[in-house]
Automatic annotation (TrEMBL):
One of its GO terms (biological process) is fructose 1,6-bisphosphate metabolic process. Its EC number is 3.1.3.11. This is Fructose-1,6-bisphosphatase class 1. GO terms for cellular component: cytosol. It catalyses: beta-D-fructose 1,6-bisphosphate + H2O = beta-D-fructose 6-phosphate + phosphate. Mg(2+) 2 binds at residues 119, 122, 286. GO terms for molecular function: fructose 1,6-bisphosphate 1-phosphatase activity; magnesium ion binding. Substrate binds at residues 122-125, 215, 247, 280. Residues 10-201 form the Fructose-1-6-bisphosphatase class I N-terminal domain. The keyword Hydrolase applies. It comes from Leptospira sarikeiensis. It is found in: Cytoplasm. Gene3D superfamilies: 3.40.190.80, Fructose-1,6-Bisphosphatase, subunit A, domain 1 (3.30.540.10). Residues 205-337 form the Fructose-1-6-bisphosphatase class 1 C-terminal domain.
Length: 340
């Protein structure tokens, strides 16, 4: 029998309860999150009907700062999140994958004490194939003086200092997975009432898992250590049950599956091409937020050299990094190949 609405906790209620746990809380963070959630609901609605709207499917004739073709839904999502959040009165500056420079607070709008770095629609190359895509966001407290316009340095903070991090996965359902400091909770959008409902309280990543997620098409570009690791987890001689390869090519979808089922995701750097010498994924608004969620759910997140992601000091808005994230025992096994 389904739970009575009074037994369900909404995201709004959850945020209020988290706020009440902090005596010094002013409600600014709760308000910021409510604006972000509103924008996510609008993007979810557009993603759901993209298949019916020729004018929103397909690519634009533009490329973004990453040199990637901007899909119309990318552009739409970027506009929704940046317009909503820069005017909500709780940010001093924003960063977006879709925009080369920092995004200031428009004249006439209140300047707040937080920053958000966001990938408005990650995995966009999959949009036309109707594959799950997502939004990833990272929240910091500003470091520059209150009341002044935010600066790039407000965004360039290491992942361990994030005030919050999360993602929305637009899949068979729309889910928001959120860490507001301690622990990870998942909320599923109930379209019938337009509210995110707490469906996955206290999410924990299984300590080990039988799934590995990597683009094997890049095999020749990998370092010997990464090659040795992948060969080991595929080999029956390795004394370990061979892993199953699952690779969607959409970070949010691959990460979310591993968070629920256990496993490891890797995006190494190219050692033999100039394409991604530092890795493909972006530190500020893809890797650092996912790393916080992974660690808070009991997992691990490192670079291919074994450095903890949350300790990395960002130097550029769109800087890239290698990424190895997943179940604690799986990442520890990977590290035995790197330490050697
Ligand atoms: P590749 C999507 O473009 C993305 O940024 C991530 O969502 C995903 O994990 C990765 O790139 C996929 O990259 O090179 O395997 O297609």
């Amino acid at each position: 029998m389904s739970a009575h609405p009074t037994q369900l906790m909404s995201l709004s209620q959850y945020l209020i309860e988290e706020q009440l746990k902090l005596p010094q809380a002013t409600g600014d963070f709760t308000a910021l999150m409510s604006h972000l959630v509103y924008a996510a609901k609008v993007v979810s609605r557009e993603v759901r009907k993209a298949g019916l709207l020729e004018n929103i499917l397909g690519a634009t004739d533009q490329t973004n700062v990453q040199g990637e073709t901007v899909m119309k839904l990318d552009e739409y999502a970027d506009k929704i999140f940046t317009h909503t959040l820069t005017r909500c009165g709780h940010l001093c500056v924003m960063g977006s994958e879709e925009q080369e420079e920092i995004i200031p607070i428009p004249t006439g709008y209140k300047i707040g004490k937080y920053t958000i770095a966001i990938d408005p629609l990650d995995g966009s190359s999959n949009i036309d194939a109707n594959v799950s895509i997502g939004t990833i966001f990272s929240v910091h407290l500003r470091t520059s003086p209150q009341g002044t316009p935010g600066v790039k340095e407000d965004l360039l903070q290491k992942g361990s200092k994030q005030r919050a991090a999360g993602y929305i996965v637009y899949g068979s359902s729309t889910m928001l997975v959120l860490c507001v400091g301690k622990g990870v909770s998942g909320f599923t959008l109930d379209p019938s009432c337009g509210e995110f409902i707490l469906s996955h309280p206290e999410m924990k990543m299984p300590e080990s898992g039988g799934i590995y997620s990597i683009n094997e098409g890049n095999y020749d570009y990998w370092s010997d250590e990464v090659k040795n690791y992948i060969r080991n987890i595929k080999s029956i001689e390795g004394g370990r049950k061979p892993q199953s390869l699952r690779y969607i090519g959409s970070l949010v979808a691959d990460f979310h599956r591993n968070l629920l089922k256990g496993g490891i995701f890797l995006y190494p750097n190219d050692t033999k091409s100039s394409k991604y010498p530092k890795g493909k994924l972006r530190l500020l608004y893809e890797v650092a937020p996912m790393a916080l969620i992974a660690e808070q759910a009991g997992g691990m997140a490192v670079t291919v050299e074994g450095k903890r992601i949350l300790d990395l000091e960002p130097e550029e808005l769109h800087e890239r990094t290698t990424f190895v994230v997943g179940s604690k025992k799986e990442v520890e096994h990977f590290l035995t190949f790197i330490k050697k």
